[in-house]
Design a protein that fits this description.
four-stranded antiparallel sheet; five-stranded mixed sheet; binds fe (ii) ion
Length: 246
């Protein structure tokens, strides 16, 4: 598996809305070729409420995505989720999480679940963190959709192993049970993700691991997207805090 040729760094800063008027069909077409990293139409692809398998190109993002913003907690404190502090911290309040290409292996309609490893082998990884706004407010019911390679560096393109979406809780927290993704030619170790505040634009990005030998040679790698990580009794624990321009 190698999506190197499809990957183009689409920018590290705030994603621009300009040029996002393309039809969902166009986005679907682009999906297999490293389509846009951030757009409203992609929300329909993610289709977290649709499980029929039909591409919900004309549906709105989610009912949940429009329901909770005004009613969620608005405490300005950074919601800590684990013993690891998500990075970047809210002190970087003007730094929106950088967008990156989705690559060629995104699939819409991933199942809603927090455990995407099932019984697959590999080093267990617990990835936790928060979704906050640039004003440091937790984003409740934010959609967080992960996909990654398995321990052997392969994507499940026929099923949904190592694919799944979830919604943040009232404190903007998410939690993912997975394994440390395997390496495949041309890329450093990474996890793909889409994050969407209720009713907001989708942020498409990738998370990276510190200390990886291939980080330096991967043209897509961005240090700002590194998780914090530590060893645990049964694997590894990582954290990352997403900051949305919402
Ligand atoms: Fe990838």
């Amino acid at each position: 598996m190698n999506d190197t040729t499809d990957d183009v760094d689409l920018g590290r800063r705030k994603v621009v809305l300009a040029g996002l008027g393309g039809a969902a069909a166009a986005i679907l077409a682009a999906c297999g070729r490293g389509g846009g990293a951030n757009d409203t139409t992609a929300a329909a692809q993610t289709g977290p409420t649709t499980t029929t398998g039909a591409a919900p190109a004309s549906t709105t993002p989610t009912t949940a995505a429009t329901a909770t913003t005004a009613t969620t907690g608005t405490t300005a404190t950074t919601a800590t989720t684990t013993s690891l502090a998500p990075t970047p911290t809210c002190a970087d309040d003007d730094d929106v999480t950088p967008a990156q290409t989705e690559g060629p292996y995104f699939k819409p309609n991933s199942p809603e679940r927090t455990n995407i490893r099932a019984d697959a082998g590999g080093t267990k990884l617990l990835l936790t963190g928060t979704v906050v706004t640039t004003a440091c407010k937790p984003v409740a019911r934010a959609l967080v959709d992960f996909w990654q390679a398995d321990n052997g560096g392969n994507y499940d393109n026929s099923g949904f192993l190592f694919r799944g979406h979830q919604f943040t809780d009232a404190q903007g927290r998410y939690s993912l049970e997975t394994v440390v993704p395997g390496l495949y030619p041309g890329r450093t170790r990474h996890i793909h993700v889409k994050v969407q505040a209720p009713g907001g634009r989708i942020l498409t990005s990738q998370l990276y691991f510190p200390g990886e030998a291939r980080n330096a040679s991967d043209g897509i790698y961005n240090k700002e997207l590194e998780v914090t990580i530590r060893d645990t009794a049964d694997g590894r624990s990582a954290a990352y805090g997403f900051v949305l321009d919402a």
